[in-house]
Amino acid sequence: MTTPLKNLEVIARLVPQGARVLDLGCGSGELLAYLMRERGCVGYGIELDDANVLASTQRGINVIQLNLEEGLKLFDDHSFDVVLQLETLQHLRNAEKMLRETARVGRIGIVSFPNFAHWPNRVSVLRGRMPVTKALPYEWYDTPNIRVGTYADFEVLARKNGLQILDSFGLQDGEMVRTLPNLLASVAVFKFERG
Amino acid sequence: MTSSVGVVTPQRMRFDQPLPLQSGAQLPAYELVYETYGTLNAQRSNAVLVCHALNASHHVAGLHADDPKSLGWWDNMVGPGKPVDTDRFFVIGVNNPGSCFGSTGPMHTNPATGRPWGADFPVCTVEDWVDAQARLIEALGIRQLAAVLGGSLGGMQAQAWALRYPERLRHCVAVATAPNLSAQNIAFNEVARRAIVTDPDFHGGHFYAHGVVPKRGLRVARMIGHITYLSDDSMEAKFGRELRDAELHFSTQDIEFQIESYLRYQGDKFSEYFDANTYLLITRALDYFDPARAHGGDLARAYAAAKAIRFLLVSFTTDWRFSPARSREIVKALVDNRADVSYAEIDAPHGHDAFLLEDPRYLAVMRAYFERIAADVTPGARA
């Protein structure tokens, strides 16, 4: 799923001016191009999909075609100010390992993913059906999201891996949700560092 | 709308100043043969140098007037409207010293003896070639190339340009290449060389005087080379176990399988036009290339010189001669230096040869990257 532009802008505000950024699963390179243009950042996008690699090349960002399932061997410890993992973690078989890799390579990690505990999803499951929404736009049988988790689940996973959460909130229609995000937001956002 | 650059005429430039070589020897006065396509702009900022691979030449695109079958080896890449668009770029194809396609090489006269150089032609390295090319570029009045582009051995030359003359190029595009040859690669080269030097017609490299050519050796060299350019899958798809005739002949000498027929054909064709001494020289240059060597094996340190250049690396998943892992080593060295690098790993079935073939994903990435180069070097355009 591509991240809506307003969500990108909210997330971009978490990235310091001039930061060296690694964008894991950079898609068509929209956010990295935005960060370079608006916030003077530098860095690389990592992408597996041919069409996205092409789109990123057309956009003029540095894109490196890699399969994230193979880890981040290419990158040294703490070699980036910020590692972004937006709407990517849920596609990865080894999501926990990738989270640790993110914390290893970056001083700060920023993760976003669809929050399965958003109330319409809960209603849908209560009615006995898997949700199909803007944040989770796939039927259960053809979803690329092989991991579904909730805002609250991520807090547990982060704690288990010794990550220090610096900030977290929900995103709903491009707006930050800081009250009951696990219930009221379709997307979860976490900013963390290695504790 | 794409088309070929049309009829092109090779040009020749003479250099009277000797070229010092890495070996300590030097090449006395020498000539380089080259072709150009497109127009150099007023700022002289749109030149792209194309470096050739093992058995190619300066003839990158278009046709020679006297031969309608003489299409350049990268005509699908270079031309009007093509990924390296000659409506925007001034493209230069050059033939290296030691080659058998017109630049000074083993078939030419050694001024010290008055006879052909033969095996006495000095061993040239990739870096020596790049030095020779740099003089040509200078003589053409170009201070900085928009890009140096090459595949395979040409990709090594592109790397050497970035490491040796970092201020003289803005972009380095290296396709299906490696930071050095593996032991397996060197082993294949050695088998090819032994096939040539043990051919009774080789005469220690001075076969020209005997009016013969070590064709048997060249054929075997080409056959083994050719096997390494293809993937197992593409050979399987093209030939499988298909027999030349409908039945077996129970012969150990004759051709039974179509793949044998194909390899012999390739070998025969090659032995008609390629020079044995050139093959030895070029495979040695491949063996020697290893920019990390001068830096204790640390490729990242070698690449520190090239930080300011922007790189595109492309590899092909089925290329076992220059595998994606080898390109990733270069990517890592560049990332360690915080250099600008993009890397595409093309899932193509054709093996090493893929870099010369039509693959829409590959050509699209090349086109997109060269559009970026055009925007970068064209006055008035946004960088």
Automatic annotation (TrEMBL), chain A:
Pfam families: MetW. It comes from the Bacteria. InterPro entries: Methionine_synth_MetW, SAM-dependent_MTases_sf. This is Methionine biosynthesis protein MetW. The gene is metW.
Automatic annotation (TrEMBL), chain B:
Pathway: Amino-acid biosynthesis; L-methionine biosynthesis via de novo pathway; O-succinyl-L-homoserine from L-homoserine: step 1/1. InterPro entries: AB_hydrolase_1, AB_hydrolase_fold, HAT_MetX-like. The record marks R321 as: Important for acyl-CoA specificity. One of its GO terms (molecular function) is homoserine O-acetyltransferase activity. Its EC number is 2.3.1.46. The active site is at S152, D319, H352. It catalyses: L-homoserine + succinyl-CoA = O-succinyl-L-homoserine + CoA. Substrate binds at R222, D353. The keyword Acyltransferase applies. One of its GO terms (cellular component) is cytoplasm. It is found in: Cytoplasm. Residues 46-358 form the AB hydrolase-1 domain. It comes from the Bacteria. Belongs to the AB hydrolase superfamily. MetX family. Transfers a succinyl group from succinyl-CoA to L-homoserine, forming succinyl-L-homoserine. Homodimer. This is Homoserine O-succinyltransferase.
